[in-house]
Amino acid sequence: MVERGNDFYISIKRIETLVDGIFAIALTLMVLNLHLPDPSGIWTNSMVWNVLWGQTNNFFVYALTFFILISFWVSHHRGFDQLKRADKGLFWLNAVWLFFVALTPFSTSLAGDFSSNVPAALFFNTNMFLLGMFSFLIRRHVIEHELSDKPLGKDEIKKIYANWLTFPVMAFLGIILSLVIPDYSYIVYLLNVIVHRILHKIIGT
């Protein structure tokens, strides 16, 4: 960090490099959740098909989480492209957010192996909720501390907040569903796409 008067600033590029590294590792580690049995012995086509079919849930959770992380990575970089500087508060909010990004491979593995169990679904959806909330808090910090390279009007700020709160709201719904029907709690993230499109048409986010 660089000291400038009473404030501390860190290079935006350094933060982006850290983000890229952690996302690359998290996205790669998630594929390890797809398990293969011992290949020794005789395996027929039907046996291999059964193994693949048995991985259906792991494939689903892996694909779902992969594209969730990709969307966060894209949104994060779009937001950082508009920054004129990064302060200490933004750095630490970003660090906590990356903590939940790095936790994602574990929560994905847990959800893939024990999707019908309440603790697994609850842990996964809580991870997603905190991922979404800290992403929102990062954006709010940028706006409130005027770190963006252009001023924003009140209406534009409301649209941005609504846009960035959509995911954590859906994840919170997933948390509630985890306690009742854990198997179906992951569907909220597919619905998130629909909700986001509706929101876009209503308020133009």
**Major β-sheet strand ordering:** 1-2
- Reading the helices and strands in chain order gives EEHHHHHHH
Radius of gyration: 20 Å
Number of domains: 1
The best one-word shape is globular
> Please, how many helices?
7
Q: For the record, give the distance between the C-alpha atoms at the N and C termini, rounded to a whole number.
A: 34 Å
How many β-strand stretches? 2
Structural class by sheet pairing and helices: mainly alpha
Question: What is this structure's SSE topology?
Answer:
Layout: E1 2-4, E2 7-9, H1 12-29, H2 45-54, H3 56-80, H4 88-113, H5 118-144, H6 154-178, H7 188-203
Antiparallel strand pairs: 1-2
Helix pairs in contact: 1-3, 1-4, 3-4, 4-5, 5-6, 6-7
What would your notes on this structure say?
By secondary structure, this protein is an all-alpha fold. Helices cover 72% and strands 3% of the residues. It has helices spanning 12-29, 45-54, 56-80, 88-113, 118-144, 154-178, 188-203, and strands at 2-4, 7-9. A two-stranded antiparallel ribbon has the order 1-2. A hairpin with a 2-residue loop joins strand 1 and strand 2. The chain is globular and about 65 Å long. The two termini are 34 Å apart.
